[in-house]
Amino acid sequence: MTQPDPPNTGQRSYGRALLDRVLAGTPSGEQPLTHVAELPAREAQFDDWPSWVIPELTTVLTARGIARPWSHQARAATLANDGHHVVLSTGTASGKSLGYQMPILSTLLSDPRASALYLAPTKALGADQLRSIISITDELREEAPQLAEVFPSAYDGDTPIEVRQWARANARWIFTNPDMIHIGILGAHERWARFLRNLRFVVVDECHYYRGVFGSNVALILRRLRRICARYGASPIFVLASATTSAPGAAASRLVGAPCTEVTEDGSPHGPRTVALWEPPLLKEITGENGAPVRRSAGAEVSRIMADLMVEGARTLTFVRSRRGAEVTALGTQRLLAEVDRDLPGRVAAYRAGYLAEDRRALEANLSDGTLLGVATTNALELGVDIAGLDAVVVAGFPGTVSSFWQQAGRSGRRGEGSLVTLVARDDPLDTYLVHHPAALLDKPIEATVTDPTNPYLLAPQLLCAAAELPITFAEADELEAEAVLSALAADGLLRRRPHGWFITPEGQKYAPHASVNIRGGTGTQVAIVDGESGRMLGTVDSGKAPATVHPGAVHIHQGESFVVDELDLEDGLALVHPEHPDWNTSARETTDIAITAVHSERTLGEVRIALVQVNVTHQVIGYLRRLHSGEILDSVELDMPEQTLDTRAVMYTITPELLIDSGIEPERFPGSLHAAEHAAIGLLPLVATCDRWDIGGVSTALHPDTGLPTVFVYDGYDGGAGFADRGHRAIAEWLEATKDAISSCECPTGCPSCVQSPKCGNGNDPLDKAGAVTVLQIVLDAYGKRGRG
Question: What is the rounded CA–CA span in Å between residue 393 and residue 102?
């Protein structure tokens, strides 16, 4: 199906013309736009084929329409070919794959024993890249049959056993993920001796994805991979690909454990883009909790925008935050389109994880060729799947990082024509801040990728895995600053110190270290969610999250179906549910106690104290609220769930009661003011640390037993910490200034989900004092401004 021609827009860009037509359908009196930016087109910068690229490969690539590589592709490829670890950090659809395909294919085709490894954070991305390489090698086989014995192969959790065995014995380019490197290759490296001995290149694709607990674990896995390769006499070159981000060279070096050269100058072309920031209006006639006004939902808003764009013939991709959201957005768009054109509803669909692979491929093909005019998707289409050249992208809520936003935005661009990108804010403090402070989103990537391979809670089990693979030398222990952790493992009888290093004991082997590590975070144990009537397994949830998400009485949504939990058995790892479609949903009520166990850093600024501390956080689910979909609370149900304790890191500040009173906050307002400031700060921490608000937690109290003062804590939601609190502590002025601005700029009178209410508050968002929160944050900022910066 051919694409519709863009309209004749005169001096206006195509993207701006689309935006004007969407605005024309906005009810009169509403002003949803907070900012519009026009990003200029960029011309392509080409380079010649490097002289070392084998001619057969250039012939195949030229036949595919690549007459010459773009400048960043040639530079990254040459650095890797010359033996340098390199990270290529450029925009979406900038052809980063060619940057590593050139040196790897040239090497594999000229050296019949050389091998390569490709790592992706998701199976879909790995499968997409594998298809590309198979296509190229098939064409190479026609060009020169003797050169195409690359045997690329997948090796992941979906790969059949017989294919895994074949790949281990024959494949020279393995496409896998960090999970399989950890448990399937490093844990059985003797069986992979042929492949590892000849390993020349390791590709780490979408490396900005590796952050927090997952990123720290992957950093340790890559160090383990390098030491195992050295055991077999290999020293592979690492080629990393990343979305545009801040300090990619430093981030890649932390991930690999070796210096990486960064290539950031993007030589690829793109057409002009119009970027619109959009805030749904308040529905003044409707109020929610505490009498707060309700804002029109981002989901309803993006369905309308998507429908308007499709009516104009614009091929549109809408990114939403959940699988259910993708289905609901597609259905909402179909209903709106049915009122305009009976053929259009059939040209919109949802795309998400959980579909069969062949169904996903069909959707991708239909979107690429124009059969589908619109798709509502989770971030499943953000990474790797080769779909670009769309007319418009709609983003329902800030996706968590600036890099992700530009990844999603980069899907738009009609081969030289203009395009439209619209960010629609959800009821969330960070979304509110960004649409009212566009420079924080559009001018630069302000988050830093946080990985901490020295985190003792992650390091201990990784070291046990490493020792099971090969004894750990004293030099390796020094490099990781791991002497204390190794000694603790030895005290537990899992390791033994010998004259030549640290060796695993029989007791340590019985611990099954590889199987015991969940590299993506969580406790490592799962609770199965099972339909008690049919026996069908619906999915799993981490046991640490189970009390708050699948407690008895909780509503559980699975692929658009509703279930209610009947029983939760944490010992057996089982949650039994039954089908039900209630007109209410549930939210857990929790109590949280926090105790300071160590102080890592502190500064006393007059009557304000700021510190980075180690804490024990004790959670207990004590009940849940049942709410109608309108937000009205039906009732509160009590529960008696077991306590859970987390040993982690927190950034905290204290303020003396006298200073609060002098600033106009009377004692009865202390709890609400501190609580509101805590909520908003949690929502804004992703501005300075690459995390999601669900990765972090907070506690506020008018009198904390360890400080004896009004205190606010924001802590990492992972054992040992994940670096988020550390980053917040380092950037506390920027973080709290943005938090104060987000609260102040919100138009609600007493507080709403866009500023100080939290979707995960264990106390039902009570008490909250919006004005008091602004004062609390200003007190801390004033103290820091007077004494802290020096």
Answer: 31
d(CA 447, CA 25): 35
Reply yes or no on domain 55-263 having CATH 3.40.50.300.
yes
pLDDT category of residue 414 using cuts at 50, 70 and 90: low
**pLDDT greater than 60 at residue 2:** no
pTM, two decimals, is 0.79
Give the residue carrying structure tokens 């992208």.
393
Q: How far is CA 552 from the centre of its chain?
A: 30
Q: How far apart are CA 778 and CA 761, in angstroms?
A: 23
- 327 vs 353: CA distance, rounded Å: 11
- Domain 14-38+270-442 in CATH 3.40.50.300? The answer is yes
Residues 6+ apart with CB under 8 A from 36: 16, 19, 274, 275, 276, 277
Question: With contact defined as beta carbons under 8 Å apart, do 651 and 600 qualify?
Answer: no
> What percent of the chain shows pLDDT beyond 70?
90
Question: Which residues of the chain does CATH 3.40.50.300 include?
Answer: 14-38+270-442, 55-263
Return left, alpha or beta for 291; rule: phi > 0 is left, psi -120 to 50 is alpha, else beta. left
Give the separation between CA 84 and CA 260, rounded to whole angstroms. 7
**What confidence category does residue 536 fall into, taking pLDDT thresholds of 50, 70 and 90?**
confident
| pLDDT at residue 355, rounded to an integer | 63
d(CA 311, CA 611): 54
Token code pair at residue 419: 């395009």
In 3-state terms, what secondary structure has residue 169? helix
